Amino acid sequence: MRFRTQVVNTATFTKLVGSLSSLGKVCWMRLEQSTIRFTIIPDQGTQVWAELPVDSIFEDREYIFESNTGVINLEVPLSALHRALRSAASAKWVQLRLTKKGKVALLALTVRSTSWAKGANPLGVGSGWDDGTNNTNEPATAPFPAAEEEEQAGTALFPGDAATSSTTDGRRERETVITQEIPVKVLHESAVEGLHEPRCRDPDVNIILPDLFQLKSISERFTKLATDSSPATKSATTITTSTTTQSSKQAGSISTSGGTGSSPISPKLELSANMHGSLRLAIATDALRISSVWTDLTNPALDPSQLSQSQMDQLPSERMRAVPGDDEAGWAKVRIDGKDWARVLSVGRLNPKVVACFIHETALVLYVYLPRSWGEQDSCLTYYINSYMN
Amino acid sequence: MATLSFSLLPASLLRMHDALVCLAKYSDAVAIEAEYNLLRLSALNSSKTAYSAFIFEADSFFEKYDFGLGRDSGPSQSRSSRAEKFSCQVYIRALLSVFKGRTTGRNQDTAVERCEFEVHEDPDETECRLVIKMICGLGVVRSYKLTYESTTIQHAVFDRSQATNEWSIEPKFLKEITDHFSPSAEQLDIHAEGTKAIFTSFTTKITDGKEVLRQPVHTSVAMDKKDFEHFLADDGLHVAISVKDFKAVIAHAETARVIITARYTRPCRPLQLAYDFEGIRAEFTLMTTGEAGPEDAPTSSRPVPQLSARQAPAPVQVSQANSTTNARQMPPPRSRPIRPLTGTSSRATDPSTQATTQPTPSIKFDSLFVPADDDRQWDVVEEDEAEAEDMLGWDATADTDNPDTLGPLLRDSEPSLRDGDPMDLSHQDDMGIPPTQRISQLHGLGLFD
Q: Where is the composition biased (Low complexity) (chain A) (predicted)?
């Protein structure tokens, strides 16, 4: 069993792991010759099945993969991996490999990062101590290549530095090698063969979600308002003010902690959409009912090459399309947990296109396409969110 | 009695505050010691593995510094060196709260202009206090009276001339290294290899099964030796210190922007990080753990063999080393022949105490820490087994009069114990009821009738 590769798309990989880590502590990472799959199946909340072609994050030519079964299944702690990947932020070379220390399997992330440093070269002949004193007199600056490069080039011309006759023109490239060893568990095929992607009926409504950041902040605001208003002592009028002024909103958020602590059930958001480009986000409590509606969104058409015309007509989404836009019957609705939804939307950092598939009163399935792979079916993160009963 | 008073300008006050913030990471209490030419603030952590001290030079750091000893113990008398200074201990949070508001003063007019520090100590007075006055703008004076505890202060002694490994580096580079570490990393291993200096974070906690995934990430950062001002350390020599202590040093050194120098000899001996600036000498003496490097003699770096090196003739040490490495395979060396060689060793270092789990008197480590110190804290848990085998070497000189102090491993093959076996039998005979006695014979005892 061998796995070694060079990470080329570090930023994407980091963001992907980051957004996954908000949904679960561990993920099942399934490595194959051409694809990588990340799966999160939490006890409660949203399931994620993400499948990426190897070349979307790893270097194709540097991908060494050997396994008797053609598959390597790993259980990976996401937050540890995410933290480790942060070391790779400004790196020029990042390698990921599967290794072993004692009985513990490890994913070893090796990062070569370079930065510019002042010409302290005490191991060089003679000039070492002079350089040393120069270094101390100058204010410490963060040795990051891009930002500091020009400035340091300027100081290098400074006579003081030149007088030390440093062989490195007052600055040099310094390289640091960082190795992060993340403990993982190798899963036997039998441990994962029972795990299948959820199957559900054809969706009633398909719609492309609006900007996720906007959706996330509105969702979070709604959730907070509902949480704040749940204690019976609060009147509806207080909530009205809290939506309008910043200061009272702050006051409200302080009392939130008490409210959430007493009631373990966090408020449920109602998310609904129709086949006429409208998406509605709503929340209702005893004290308030608020909603936001987006219009003029896109209802993506299904690929006609995969379905015959008659099959197309049979689809529930086509029936929903036939319902006029102003008719409530044309809306498919799901009730989802506000906090879980906010964690799902953290995938927004990848700047993806998201197609939301509504199965009325049953589930919400999100197909998250990474920017580069828009339209490619094989590079997609699928989120399965159960709808709560009313 | 002693009189102490000094005053600080805002810049110095800031430095002293930084020092206290740093010391607070080691201990709850700060030791304050005043001498004629310096003031020392120091802290020793509860496990006595880390000692940090800031020494403020009387001439250069303070605006004004007065220290005198009362008529009873004037400098001319010099009854004992201990009386030459004033020492006390203060709860560090209390002292820090005095400095609070120094920077957050909303009104710039009432910013602190001077800080005056006085000790009121007099046997005739009922109240002995540290009095700190913050002289602020617009005639505002904030005064604080703190209680203190008069104690004798423990110092870690570090002999720089003995340190064979030394390197200096800007703290920002070290900061970069620790930034990569997992927040739950506990230990830091430092070693040199070729042109690289390698810093590895690890944890000694043993986890298995499901817990494996919760284990902290091990991070190793390899840095070019060129990044150091100078680097003189043996290749392949590993020393390990606590990450938390290391970070505390870096955080302070960064505020001072001053080059840190590390000095150490070998594992299980102290490592000192030190730097001087603006009339302040900062010293952090940290205990190291680790294993002997390949080029070291196998006995040289472990704490217990080290003790033997000072007490026992060299040949004995070697023979013990042989026995330690093969402790499980070989019968333990006979105790009688060896014993006379170390017979002069005092009771305090009686090997039998080391064979058990009792703490080793660690005062022998460069006379660093008090004898009550628990030696196991130095140990890397992963090495516990190996350590235990090493310990067996000491059993060779164990107190045979008291075989109970020996470990169970030794007991099986210890010749003297075989003599004990018949004794045990005779002991059972005294009971009058051998174990094979039938119940039928027990009539008349009233139990089984």
A: 133-146, 229-267
